[in-house]
Amino acid sequence: MKVVFIGAGNVATHLSAAMRQAGLCICQIYSRTEANAQKLAAEHACAWTTDVGALRSDADLYVFALKDAVLPKIVAQVSPDEGFWLHTAGSVPMDIFRGYARHYGVLYPLQTFSKKRPIDFRSVPCFIEADSAQSEQRLRTLAEKISSDVRLLSSEKRRYLHLAAVFACNFTNHMYVLADRILNEQGIDPTVLLPLIDETAAKIHTLSPADAQTGPAVRYDRNVIEKQSAMLTDPIVRELYELISKHIHLLSQS
């Protein structure tokens, strides 16, 4: 199977590697950034381009691994309507391909990806959706080559899954950034938090998030909360601290 990747970011890097490992042939990489296109193409020893109009027309699969904001514009510019088109976005409906491709779908890998950090793609849950029963079976067969956890999910449900992932991953990591800054400013090695971070995540495997919640906000220890709030010099971070503390307490009472 010949695959064209439209996009050369984090998702494209890991997904293309997983597909290659599964025996698929990555034959072309597109990116509007020449350096990114060249780098990913070098990993697959394949052609690359920064011109959407220069995409191969004979591929079996076209993978759109792009930012949500640019996806509609690029889809409208792609001329080959043969092959199977799929995108990897959490919040973009499958029907973005309607009128452009004959067979299409979505393969949304629920994981955080960084180019320089290896991922075992077999363990990544992949959520699929397709335009027809035939396309769905075709997409499932493909997805099961790279992941041991493949699930069917509609565009509407996928939007909520993506929203939940933003809270569970992106916002959580932002809290790590804030904690890292606090400790660096005080000359404390931020790695001392790693056992705490690991245990916080590990508890969710056996406890519900609500049951795993601890800290002064659960009982709303005003003395501690007010002192810590006063320590924060950034007004936005202070407001964030106070708002989250109130919400933790609110949910603990329900």
UniProtKB/TrEMBL annotation:
Residues 124-247 form the DUF2520 domain. InterPro entries: 6-PGluconate_DH-like_C_sf, DUF2520, NAD(P)-bd_dom_sf, P5C_Rdtase_cat_N, TM1727-like_C_sf. Residues 2-78 form the Pyrroline-5-carboxylate reductase catalytic N-terminal domain. This is DUF2520 domain-containing protein.
